[in-house]
UniProtKB/TrEMBL annotation, chain A:
Protein family (similarity comment): Belongs to the bacterial ribosomal protein bL19 family.
Record carries keyword Ribonucleoprotein: yes
SUPFAM superfamilies: Translation proteins SH3-like domain
Single GO cellular component term: mitochondrial large ribosomal subunit
Organism placement in taxonomy: Eukaryota, Metazoa, Ecdysozoa, Arthropoda, Hexapoda
Subcellular location as annotated: Mitochondrion
Protein's name in the database: Large ribosomal subunit protein bL19m
MF term (GO), any: structural constituent of ribosome
Organism expressing this protein natively: Melipona bicolor
Single GO biological process annotation from the record: translation
Automatic annotation (TrEMBL), chain B:
GO cellular component: mitochondrial inner membrane; ribonucleoprotein complex; ribosome
InterPro entries per record: Ribosomal_uL14, Ribosomal_uL14_sf
Protein's cellular compartments: Mitochondrion
Source organism (scientific name): Melipona bicolor
Single GO term (MF): structural constituent of ribosome
GO biological process: translation
HAMAP family per UniProt: Ribosomal_uL14
Signal peptide start and end residues: none
Name of the protein this chain belongs to: Large ribosomal subunit protein uL14m
Keywords assigned: Mitochondrion, Ribonucleoprotein, Ribosomal protein, Transit peptide
UniProt feature coiled coil, ranges: none
Record CDD domains: Ribosomal_uL14
TrEMBL record, chain C:
Ribonucleoprotein keyword on record: yes
Gene Ontology cellular component terms for the protein in this record: mitochondrial large ribosomal subunit
Keyword Cell cycle: no
Region entry Disordered, spans: 243-270
Molecular functions (GO terms): structural constituent of ribosome
Keywords on record: Ribonucleoprotein, Ribosomal protein
InterPro entries: Ribosomal_uL3, Ribosomal_uL3_bac/org-type, Transl_B-barrel_sf
Name of the protein in its database record: Large ribosomal subunit protein uL3m
Family from the record: Belongs to the universal ribosomal protein uL3 family.
Highest taxon listed in the record's lineage: Eukaryota
Provenance organism: Melipona bicolor
Lineage of source species: Eukaryota, Metazoa, Ecdysozoa, Arthropoda, Hexapoda
GO biological process: translation
Length: 308, 147, 366
């Protein structure tokens, strides 16, 4: 009898282990924005795991985070190999003309663009990236800043040829994958000076800014209590809204493997896509690094001369 | 994460909590952003003007459209210079629905606009100005900042 | 005891009922309300028999055959034509000539930017392994005539085109016979295009995306997305009725469909619920913006090409009088000169991604 129970125990333990592995697997290779932040938080625990993968494919591992727009829409109704290939070629061609830096939601960007409504002027907008969406040539991002006490948001297409320059002034991540709640936060949390300079990169990994932001009192543009936000200090709502939020919460969705599968590109396909663009992207990255170093050296020199 | 409802009652603002209308139609509350006397007084009083007519075929106001507003018991014309709704790429979206008061000839009532104004307004204002009609380009001259 | 008996009795009764009712249930056989239109078998195809022949092949021979078949499949680059180009009679384009179209596959939609900075959505259409299968001269070409269409008095010939190579082992001998006589690899789809006799092509001539030029206008025929039986709001864009204010059970219904009196009937053509989509539609006057000669892909200025992604569509020279083509490649682009073309062809107003950024200059400067 004891033997049987032991055997059974072992079996269930194995099953559990399998389930655990299955749970982890889609996380590490998911293209979901939602899961990205999860990984950023428990980076330390999963470091041992991810290290192995990184060894296997030195830089392809984090390409899905650095270049999310190279992954196509997972909806099978819109997939086609040739179209994706042509789209990638176009994207690389554009990237070889304009160097698009690595950035995430929460990074501070400066976009210089040419505007038909303001010819012969330098149009520069600085702001925090609060949303990054779309895939392929449709990908776009949303910048937010406060100008003269008025919150301003501008939407840019990443591959728009009228954009002259994109600079990442501060490279960091936030706790959430969308920062749209900054619209309902005090203005000082989305105020950035237009004459900001590029900050020097300190560490190899991307720093995560774990600032907690208080929200303005009601009314809000969206019902933030329903979004499970991590970067918000405390959410003050009445009991009715709390109950409604609790009723509409879907805590089981993170265990839904089929949902993850439907909303992500499988690992093999990701590797295929990135190995296709790897050489060109690598070349561009090296060029970008050289330019960046030059710029930093110049700035150091100029600051020295100023102090003298 | 949640704070009890009693605290909420203390903190909550005494403003209308009806759902935000995402487009400028009749009876939308607007924000006057120039330094005209009447506009300043209305905003200080906490009674922002209401749009009572949109001069367009659809009755929905978009950026650069002319509106008729009810402000401090008077009827004034204004131009929408910044909207809260989602805009096209490279056209800014603002946190409030901004309006600049003008008179019938297109001359602004104030002398300064204290919020940024979208670049696209230059093209729209120039397009709307005809040689014999109102001159809306005067509005661009009193702007302090373009984004 | 009595209770047990009672329950037993009750069970019996119940079971009897069940059995009876089961016997009584007769599943009604519901025929189709509207039978599908009768298909006429195309005259150039042999009658299908659907019989797989046992070839009695050795495993080695089977392997060899599948190897040969795989060589022929999925070639994106145009194979070098074995045809002697002289066999294609060079003809001059004259007013009223009609050349062949192409069979394409809609592969997706993505934006391009014009030189003036405007973003436009374009549909990508791939031309896969298009080859001429057969030419039917005007004397022998007698298509089915629908009385409702006007028929031109000029008699045109017909070109049968095939697209998408398939494995010859998977098809019947009869179907293979069509291609065997023409000397082309078996194709998945066939389509006929009426042409004037001076645009006739020899069977086996490969056609590519360079058949069209960037800047030309085309008509695209495709089968729209099948949406099934739909109500009047989705199918015809009716407004429906209010959600509240005393409205009961008529939120998405059409409302009145006609008047009484003498006209006490439903007028023909009244918009009613029914099957939506899955019918042939032609999008006319679409501009070609860009052509990739390596992958044989055409970018057209439209986001509403009929059909889902990965479905076939047919491209013709447009019939719109103002957008008609005056100097096309006639009868087609010479298949042996493909390598002379650059990989990407653009119209003048499209911004290629390899070109530098767009900068707007003030008018005084430029």
């Amino acid at each position: 009898m004891t033997m049987v129970s032991r055997l059974w125990c072992q079996k269930t333990w194995q099953n559990l282990a399998l389930a655990k592995v299955l749970g982890k697997e889609p996380k590490t290779f998911s293209t979901l924005v939602q899961l990205k932040t999860d990984e950023a938080i428990d980076d330390n625990d999963s470091q041992a795991q991810t290290n192995d993968e990184l060894i296997k494919s030195p830089s392809l591992g984090n390409y899905r985070l650095v270049y999310p727009e190279f992954l196509p829409d997972p909806n099978p109704l819109f997939r086609n190999g040739i179209r994706e290939k042509l789209e990638r070629m176009d994207m690389l061609n554009r990237r070889s003309v304009l160097s698009i830096p690595e950035f995430y939601v929460g990074s501070i960007l400066a976009v210089t663009y040419s505007d038909p409504h303001a010819v012969g002027k330098i149009n520069k907008f600085v702001g925090i990236c609060i949303l990054r969406e779309g895939c392929g040539l449709r990908s776009s991002f949303l910048l937010r800043n406060v100008v003269n006490g008025e919150g301003v948001e501008v939407h840019y297409d990443l591959y728009d040829p009228a954009i002259q320059k994109i600079d990442c002034l501060r490279l960091e991540k936030r706790l959430d994958d969308e920062l749209l709640y900054l619209r309902d936060a005090p203005l000082e949390y989305s105020t950035f000076p237009f004459d900001m300079e590029i900050e020097a990169k300190i560490s190899e990994s991307i720093p995560v800014n774990d600032i907690k932001i208080p929200l303005n009192p009601l009314p809000w543009s969206q019902r933030w209590e329903r979004y499970n936000l991590k970067g918000v200090k405390e959410i003050v709502v009445n009991e009715r809204r709390q109950k409604k939020a609790a009723a509409l919460a879907k805590p089981w969705e993170k265990y839904d493997l089929m949902k993850t599968y439907r909303e992500t590109i499988p690992e093999e396909e990701q590797n295929e896509i990135f190995s296709d663009v790897y050489t060109k992207l690598n070349e561009l990255e090296i060029q970008k690094n050289i330019l960046k170093r030059k710029y930093m050296l110049q700035r150091q020199k100029s600051s020295k001369t100023r102090t003298l | 994460m949640f704070v009890p409802g009693t605290l909420f009652n203390v903190v909550s603002r005494s403003v209308s909590t009806s759902t935000v209308c995402n487009q400028i139609i009749k009876l939308t509350r607007l924000r006057v952003v120039d330094n005209s006397e009447i506009g300043k007084a209305a905003m200080m009083e906490g009674k922002p003007p209401r749009c009572i007519h949109v001069y367009s075929k659809t009755g929905v106001g978009y950026i650069g459209d002319r509106v008729l507003v009810a402000i401090k018991g008077e009827k004034k014309k204004g131009i929408l210079v910044g909207l809260k709704q989602r805009q096209n790429a490279k056209v800014p979206r603002f946190d409030s629905n901004n309006v600049v008061l003008i008179d019938d000839s297109g001359t602004p009532l104030g002398t300064r606009i204290h919020v940024p104004i979208p670049h696209i307004l230059r093209t729209i204002m120039r397009k709307n100005t005809h040689s014999k009609g109102a001159d809306y380009t005067k509005l661009l001259a009193i702007a302090t900042k373009f984004v | 005891m009595t209770s047990i008996l009672k329950t037993f009795n009750g069970y019996q009764l119940f079971s009897k009922h069940l059995k009876q009712s089961l016997d009584m249930i007769a599943v009604p056989v519901r025929g189709r309300q509207n039978p599908p239109p009768r298909k006429r078998h195309p005259e150039w195809l042999p009658k299908p028999t659907h019989v797989r022949y046992n070839e009695d092949l050795t495993p080695e021979n089977k392997e060899f055959l599948s190897e040969v078949a795989s060589l022929n499949k999925g070639l994106h680059e145009m194979p070098k034509s074995p045809l002697n180009t002289e066999l294609i009679q060079p003809a001059k384009w004259t007013q009223g000539s009609k050349r062949t179209g192409l069979i394409g596959k809609k592969i997706g939609v993505y934006p391009l930017w014009l030189k003036n900075g405007k973003k436009v959505l374009t549909t990508l259409i791939q031309i896969i392994d298009n080859e001429v299968v057969k030419y039917i001269p005007p004397e022998k070409f007698n298509p089915v005539k629908h009385s409702k269409h006007l028929h031109p008095k000029i008699k045109n010939g017909c070109l049968v085109l095939g697209a998408v190579n398939i494995d010859p082992q998977l098809i019947t001998k009869e179907y293979y016979g069509i291609f065997n006589s023409a000397g082309v690899t078996p194709k998945k789809t066939l389509m006929r295009f009426t042409v004037t006799p001076n645009a006739a092509l020899q069977s086996g001539t490969p056609l590519c995306a360079a058949h069209f030029k960037p800047g030309e206008f085309i008509d695209i025929r495709g089968k729209t997305i099948d949406r099934g039986f739909q109500g009047v709001m989705k199918r015809w864009g009716f407004k429906g009725m209010p959600a509240s204010h005393g409205v009961t059970k008529t939120h998405r219904r059409p409302g009145n469909i006609g008047s009484g009196g003498k006209k006490a009937r439903v007028m023909p053509g009244t918009k009613l619920p029914g099957h939506m989509g899955n019918r042939w539609r032609i999008l006319k006057g679409v501009k070609i913006l860009r052509i990739n000669t390596k992958y044989n892909v055409i970018w057209v200025l439209a986001q509403n090409v009929p059909g889902e992604v990965n479905t076939m569509c047919y491209l013709y020279d447009t019939i719109l009088p103002t957008k008609k083509n005056t100097s096309p490649h006639f009868p087609t682009y010479p298949p042996n000169d493909i390598n002379a073309l650059p990989e990407e062809l653009y119209t003048d107003d499209v911004h290629p991604f390899t070109e530098p950024n767009i900068e707007y200059q003030s008018e005084q400067e430029s």
